[in-house]
Structures are given as structure tokens and as C-alpha cells.
Amino acid sequence: MIEIVSQERCIGCDRCVEVCPTSVFDTGPGGIPVIARVQDCQTCFMCEAYCPVDALFVAPQAEPVEPGSPLRDEAYVTAAGLLGGYRKKIGWGRGRTPGALRAVGPDLPRPTPAPPRKEHR
Amino acid sequence: MTAEVTLLRHADVLVLGGGPAGAWAAIAAAEAGADVVLADKGYCGTSGSAAAGGNNLWYLPPDPALREAAMDAREAIAGRLTERRWMERVIEETYHQIGRLAGWGYPFPVDEGGVERRGSLQGPEYMRRMRRKAHRSGVRILDHHPALELLATPDGTAVGAAGIRRQDGGGRWEVRAGAVVLATGGCAFLSGAFGLDVDTGDGHLMAAELGAELSGMEFSNAYALSPAYGAHTKGLMMQFASYYDEAGRPLELGDMGTARQAVARLLADGRQVLARLDQAPPGLREAMRRSQPNYFLPLDKAGIDPFTQAYPVRLVMEGTVRGTGGLRVVGEDCATTVPGLYAAGDVATRELITGSVSGGGSHNGAWAISSGTWAGAAAAAFATRGEGRARSRPAGRAGLRPHGPATGAAAEVVRAVQDEVLPLDRNYFRTAAGLRRSLTSLDRLWTDVAAHLSGEGRGALRARQAAAMVAHGRWMYRAALARAESRGMHQRLDRPEADPRLARRIHVGGLDEVWTAPEEPKEAVA
Ligand SMILES: Cc1cc2nc3c(=O)[nH]c(=O)nc-3n(C[C@H](O)[C@H](O)[C@H](O)COP(=O)(O)OP(=O)(O)OC[C@H]3O[C@@H](n4cnc5c(N)ncnc54)[C@H](O)[C@@H]3O)c2cc1C
Ligand code: SF4
Ligand code: SF4
């Protein structure tokens, strides 16, 4: 779930309002978006990918984290390098290499779905 | 739905949904000379399962032996419901279109041998490029414009759609068009699976209101593993997993196919199951991280190293997203049974190329590209014939225009559907008795929804989504009851074997009355 909009970093571009597929954010009165419908967050990390200044943090939990959780603590999350983490991982942003370019996966055995059932003929 | 029309547009082709299927359809229609509008519930570029999850593709170079082998391999597990001709077409079209995507600048990786690897697409990068290409092709994109209903002529031809402007005060939009491509994705029942809460089966409901038929809806119970606390259902890396019980004792679960079922059984029984990527050779781990950041990041954020720490898992419902059922297509151009209405991607049945087993690991993404391209081109051709454009009426009913006093609450309906469709014991492990019990509840729910459910503004979307989920659940379980056997992902505890007489597709349709009909078997090919 989306947990943090960094008041310090946000430049009020409203990109997150636009790109969030489930429209979790509203534009905020002071220019900084507000998390208006947290229950609609589907933990997809897309807002993190698009925020140009790494001001967002989406916790990996499918429910909001406990009030005391470090994942709500901007100082902790920033220090851990997790603000805007998805953008970093996919290599978006100035001076980064697109992650897609480096995504040479290991040759994997093809995912095998459940084996076919025997058919008596 | 009473809101005033605050946005009215005309187009040759209207595409509903801006995931890969919708984007490819819009581009193909525009390239065929059509004036195209694409409306998405969310944002074309981030919305839908491919943007969130990424896609490995059924991507095969034009080497006949390789392609034959790939088709043979799928046929061997697909429950005899596929058609070779469709497989060939999808492989060829996907290969061709991925070549074009490379030309548009998608940064495909190059391996150590200097070979460009085009078989895998990273979600955000892929869909950002698709949006850009659609835009440059002249497609007019409407983000946050969910469609709620189709517009139809008196004789039932689809000639547009209407919905709400979610971020502009919730007013009504209407697009009048010469043809419509539905590309609204599958239905994951708002299970929370990452990226899938936009996929609520709206397109299936809209189409069914014009009499469209569906097929393969019994293959609708895809579930995928995620960390127990989360919703990230990336499956590829689980090939390297070993599983443990709550005491840390290794579970002997057999090969991958049977392992999944054994894990499901344990979870359904309320046991805890932990996973660890023990089988990943240390030399590969860095490459694994680079190739699937959306598997690793949610674990990193939770402070878990999956190579050394076992973490608890759960199974999250993905319904017809990584299932195979959907709208029945009746021609090679992905026409539905409704004139002027085409289906592409997960909203359409994928049985033709992946049968009774999930196409989620490569087939579905290839299908989205191919079916999107065909549907877009065909819709453009249909539109130039100009059969529509006459008087039209809005076709939406349940959840939109209740025939009784509006009293329903969408959230309660959603919960009631989820109670029937999410639990492993009801939907992964099916029995005739259980299916009948669920159908009794869902049928009653439908009657209620049709009579009373509606909403205003954003609430109109919630109500309509809830109605679509009820309809989806009823088709799913009616088809599951009709398929009195086990085949592929459809597992009936009371009929554990496959029945050769049922090696055929099952059609389903209807709203107030749901019907099923087995497809006439094709004449056996010697
Ligand atoms: C975790 C995960 C991993 C996957 N990995 C693979 C893989 O490796 N290989 C593979 O082949 N397949 C994979 N798949 C499946 C693949 O992603 C889908 O088959 C593919 O994305 C289907 O494309 P689509 O455009 O039909 O649907 P989607 O990508 O789901 O897009 C549907 C779009 O329709 C929009 N929409 C919905 N309702 C409305 C409405 N009422 N009005 C307007 N717009 C609407 C949504 O906002 C969304 O943008 C995976 C799926 C998941 C969930
Ligand atoms: S994680 Fe996804 S759903 Fe949640 S706020 Fe960000 S973009 Fe929206
Ligand atoms: S995208 Fe980032 S910078 Fe822009 S408004 Fe959102 S949080 Fe602020």
C-alpha cells in the first residue's frame, strides 16, 4: 500500500495523480497530492516508477502497515534507499540505464502448468 | 445513471481498455486509416496486468521445427481445446509485431553472446512505449474514463460506449463510433493481486448485455503465489523454490505441476507454507534480480532475502486474467457474436492457443499483441462500412439502471461475491455440491443487484464493477458445473479424471438466465 508522499521532495507535478491506475491520489491544496483513497491502492508500484524526484514509497504489504512501522517512517525509508525504489530498479530517470536493457534473465525451464489428466479412451 | 453528458466525441473506432491488447488494437486501427479514441479506466501505460507484471512472450523465430515443437508442447498439456491454426497465426503475428516494437525503440537486452533477447518485456517500459506509439499514431487517449456501458443500434450493433469522467467531477462521457474493440482485460475479482484491481470483468458484462457469448469460463480459477503479507504474484522465480512447513521442515511436493496443487491443499487447510529460492545457483542470482525487479523489490522492502530466508506464501486469486476463459470470438478477426464488437486480449477466450491451462507465462501476452492487432484492423474495416451511426441507445442494466428502488451498496456486493469465488476450498478445489451452493447465493445476489444497485460519480463505477463480478462468478461456476470432469486448471474433487467426451469447449452466456452449451466437436482430423 502507498504509505509516504515525501513533503520534502515532492515538487507538486501531479504525475502520480495522473498515472495511478486506481486513482488513489487527489491533487492537494498546497500542491502536494493527498492519498485520498488508500483502500483502492493495489500495490503496483507504478507511482514510484513515475515520480520524477523519488518522493513516493509504496510498502509491499497489501494492507496499510501498523502505525509504528518503520515503513511509515520517512527518515528510515530514505536512509534505507527505499524512497522511489521501483524507479531505481527499472532504471528510469536521468543518468540511469533502463533496467529493460539489462534484463537478461537466466534461461529458465518453461513454467509448467498442472500436468494433463489421464484420459481413458 | 443520470449524470449529464459533459464530453461527447465521434470516432471510427473506439477502443475500451489501454493495456497491451487495447494499445495494439488502437495502433492497428489507426494504421488502417481509422480515427481512433481509446478510453481507459486508469491510465494507458500503467494500468492492467502487463504494465504491472511484465510479460514473457510466446516468441519464436521463424524456424518451423522450433515452432512445431512449441505448439506440440502446448497441445500436450492444453486439454485438446486448442486450434493449431490459431497457434500458428499468433506465433507469426507476435514475432512480427515484436520486431516492430524493437523498431520503435524498446531497449531489448543483449546477452553475453551478443544476441538480442526479445522474448521478455518489462511492464512499465513496454507500456510506456505502447502509449507513446499510440499517441504518435494519432490515437486520442482518454485516461480515467472508465466505460460503463455500450451504445447500440436498435438491431444490436455496437456503435460506441459511455462512462464516467472519474477525475473530472464524475460527469458522463459518450463516444459514438463505427465499431468498438473491447480490451478491458480479465476479471480478478478485486482480490488485490498487484495491478489487477482494474480488471473487474466490465467488458464481459457490457458485451453480454448485447447478447455476446463466452467460452472457457470454467478455466477462470487462476491463483498465484505471493508473499503472505503482500500481493506480488510474480511466479517465474518460484521455479527455484523449495517449500517448508511452519516448523521449517522441508515439504516433499514433487515436480512443479503437482507442487502447486499440494501447496494449495495445505493453504486451504489453514496450514502455513514457506518458500525459499534454494535451487537458484549462486552464479545466477544477480541476473535473476535484474530480470525480475518486481519479484525482488517487495521482498527487499520487507527485509527478506529470498535466497537465504524462507518466507510465508499465500495464493492470490487472478481469475480470468491468468485463466483462459472470456468472450467467444467467431472469426479470425476476433469478432464477437455482436456486430461491430471485437474482443482482444484477456477479455476474449484464450482457449484457442492455450486450452485448459494458464497462458499466463507467455501465451496470454502473445495473444494480447496478436488479437489486439487483428481486432483493431477489423474494427477499422467494419467502421468504414458505416453500418452503425444510426440511432443508438445505451445498453447498460445491472448496477447502472436498476429496475427497482436504488438501495444496494456496492461494497457489500463485492464482499458477497468474494466470499464465493476467492476461497481455495470453493474455487481451486471444486465440487458439484459446492458449485451449486455458490450459484444459489450468486443468483440471488444477481437478482438483487439488477433490481437495486447503482451509484453516482465514482460510485457508479464501483456499482458497475460489482455487477460485473457477480455476472462473472455466475458464468464461471455454471461452466464449472457443466464441465463434470477435471481438465487443466479446472479441478473437480468429485470428478478427478478427464472425460474424453468433454474434450470440447463449453459456451456460456446470459444474464438473468445463464445457459451453457458444449461446442459441437469438429470432425476428427485423421
Ligand atoms: C503477475 C502477472 C504476470 C504475468 N506474466 C505474464 C507473462 O510472463 N507472459 C504472458 O504471456 N502473460 C503474462 N501475464 C498475463 C498478461 O499480462 C495479460 O495476458 C495481458 O496483460 C493482457 O492484456 P490486456 O490488455 O488484455 O489486459 P490488461 O493488461 O489487464 O489491461 C486491461 C486494461 O483495461 C482497462 N479497463 C478495465 N475495465 C475498463 C473499463 N470499464 N473501461 C475502460 N478501461 C477498462 C484497465 O484499466 C487496463 O488498462 C501475467 C499476468 C500477471 C497478473
Ligand atoms: S502503488 Fe499503484 S495503486 Fe498504489 S498508489 Fe501507487 S500507483 Fe496507485
Ligand atoms: S509524482 Fe512525485 S513529485 Fe509529482 S506530485 Fe507526485 S509525489 Fe509529487
From TrEMBL, chain A:
PANTHER family: ADENYLYLSULFATE REDUCTASE, BETA SUBUNIT, FERREDOXIN III. Gene3D superfamilies: 3.30.70.20. InterPro entries: 4Fe4S_Fe-S-bd, 4Fe4S_Fe_S_CS, Fe-S_Ferredoxin. Residues 96-121 are annotated as: Disordered. Residues 1-30, 31-61 form the 4Fe-4S ferredoxin-type domain. GO terms for molecular function: 4 iron, 4 sulfur cluster binding; metal ion binding. The keyword Iron-sulfur applies. This is Ferredoxin. Keywords: 4Fe-4S, Iron, Iron-sulfur, Metal-binding. The keyword Kinase does not apply.
Automatic annotation (TrEMBL), chain B:
Keywords: FAD, Flavoprotein, Oxidoreductase, Pyridine nucleotide biosynthesis. It holds the Pfam family Succ_DH_flav_C. One of its GO terms (molecular function) is steroid dehydrogenase activity, acting on the CH-CH group of donors. GO terms for biological process: NAD+ biosynthetic process. Residues 428-499 form the Fumarate reductase/succinate dehydrogenase flavoprotein-like C-terminal domain. Its cofactor is FAD. It catalyses: L-aspartate + O2 = iminosuccinate + H2O2. Residues 386-406 are annotated as: Disordered. Its EC number is 1.4.3.16. Residues 12-355 form the FAD-dependent oxidoreductase 2 FAD-binding domain. Pathway: Cofactor biosynthesis; NAD(+) biosynthesis; iminoaspartate from L-aspartate (oxidase route): step 1/1. InterPro entries: FAD-dep_OxRdtase_2_FAD-bd, FAD/NAD-bd_sf, Fum_R/Succ_DH_flav-like_C_sf, Fum_Rdtase/Succ_DH_flav-like_C, NadB, Succ_DH/fumarate_Rdtase_cat_sf. Catalyzes the oxidation of L-aspartate to iminoaspartate, the first step in the de novo biosynthesis of NAD(+). Belongs to the FAD-dependent oxidoreductase 2 family. NadB subfamily. This is L-aspartate oxidase. It comes from Nonomuraea glycinis.
